[in-house]
Structures are given as structure tokens and as C-alpha cells.
Specification:
Number of helices: 7
Helix content: 25-40%
Order of helices and strands: EEEEEHEHEHEHEHEHH
Largest sheet: 6 strands, parallel
Strand order of the largest sheet: 7-6-3-8-9-10
Number of strands: 10
Length: about 160
């Protein structure tokens, strides 16, 4: 668990990390270099779940490799399914990371939403829904590994 009391932002008690797959932790179905190490550094701190429509058919192998849960979207409204996952976990205990339009609702619902502007870019809606914006998934994971850095970003 990550516990922070952030001046002007509020108290956080984060228990879950929800990660979009394509464009966030993977590119073209392949894991971004350094992501495995970043997730491993959070083991025992946050329960991590990857959420994906599994476009490349690699989601379960990716989850096994990373030692995390995988939630494969089966419905036709990906944004709604991602939102529902965050709500089921308890929005106030979730940090969510994504980049696409279908990630905006989950980022807005999560206690902390992080938008990654990576090689695929990021949607304007997701950028506006985020509490924190980074240019690399490894930077987002590093913020969670050292929560004082997140406090510095969010305090007012």
C-alpha cells in the first residue's frame, strides 16, 4: 500500500495499480524495455492488473512474465469496461496508467490517474483526465516506487 497525505490534494491509500497494455506498457504487443523491472520494484506495495482488449493475443503470456493479473476486455465499450474494473477495485484505492481515449474514464475515476505520452502519443481526453503526465512508462513506475516524488508533483 502507498499512503500519502498530500497538501491540497488529500490523503491517498493506494492498493491497486491498473495498467493499460498497448501504447502504455507494450508497443506492438512487445513489452517496453524496463517495464518488468519497474513492476517488480512495486511487488508487495501495489496489486497490479493489466487491462487490455488483447489486440495482439499476448496478454496472458505478458501477465505470466510480469507476475501480475490480466483483465481481458470482452465487451464492445472498452472505456466502460476499464472504468468498471477500476470501480470494482475501489476507485479511491487505485492508481491507473494509460494513454488512449479508452483510458480517460478509468484515469478520471482512479484516485490517481497517470497519462503516458509515449511513442504512440496520448489522447487529449486522457491527458485532461490525468492527475500526472509523464513521457515514459518507466517514469510513471518510478514515481510509484518513490511516492515522495508523487507527493511533490501533486501538492498545491
Amino acid at each position: 500500500m502507498i499512503q500519502l497525505d498530500i497538501p491540497g490534494y488529500g490523503e491517498l491509500r493506494l492498493q491497486h495499480l491498473v495498467l493499460d497494455v498497448n501504447g502504455t506498457i507494450a508497443a506492438g504487443g512487445e513489452l517496453v524495455e524496463g517495464v518488468a523491472e519497474g513492476i517488480a520494484a512495486l511487488e508487495g506495495t501495489l496489486r497490479t492488473v493489466a487491462v487490455t482488449a488483447d489486440t495482439h493475443g499476448t496478454a496472458h503470456a505478458l501477465g505470466e512474465r510480469l507476475g501480475i493479473g490480466v483483465h481481458v476486455i470482452t465487451g464492445s465499450w472498452e472505456a466502460g469496461d476499464k472504468l468498471e474494473l477500476v470501480q470494482d477495485l475501489g476507485s479511491d484505492a487505485v492508481v491507473a496508467i494509460g494513454n488512449g481515449s479508452n483510458d480517460a474514464l478509468m484515469l478520471r475515476s482512479a484516485a490517481v490517474g497517470v497519462c503516458v505520452i509515449g511513442p504512440e502519443g496520448a489522447s487529449r481526453a486522457t491527458l485532461e483526465a490525468a492527475d500526472i503526465v509523464v513521457t515514459d512508462i518507466r517514469d510513471a513506475l518510478a514515481l510509484l516506487a518513490d511516492p515522495r516524488r508523487m507527493l511533490a508533483t501533486l501538492r498545491t
